[in-house]
Specification:
93 residues, Tscrpt_reg_AsnC/Lrp_C, Alpha-Beta Plaits, four-stranded antiparallel sheet, alpha+beta, Dimeric_a/b-barrel, Lrp/AsnC ligand binding domain-containing protein
């Protein structure tokens, strides 16, 4: 599985609608609205790089309101959350 982080600049008046339309696309796991250099960040997963190469330019970039995308491919995840969650199964706080 390949994960891509897609930074999206969107027209200000269309951010909520644009974000929802992107979130509804196959392969898009999450969409965050944010402050900073970009308006939206999408987490995209596909079985291979060709899938990412299809989803971003052929689907995300064509959503009304999207002005620009910059895509970063993730190599590896360094999260302790999954490990912590696995060890806490069945335990109550």
């Amino acid at each position: 599985m390949v994960t891509a982080i897609v930074l999206i600049s969107a027209s200000a008046e269309a951010i909520p609608q644009t974000a929802q339309a992107i979130a509804d696309l196959d392969g898009v796991q999450e969409v965050f609205s944010c402050a900073g250099d970009v308006d939206l960040i999408a987490i995209v997963k596909a079985t291979d790089h060709e899938g990412i190469a299809d989803i971003v330019p052929n689907h995300i970039s064509r959503v009304p309101g999207v002005e620009r995308t910059v895509t970063h491919i993730a190599f590896r995840s360094y999260s302790t959350r999954d490990t912590d969650d696995a060890f806490s199964i069945g335990m109550s706080s």
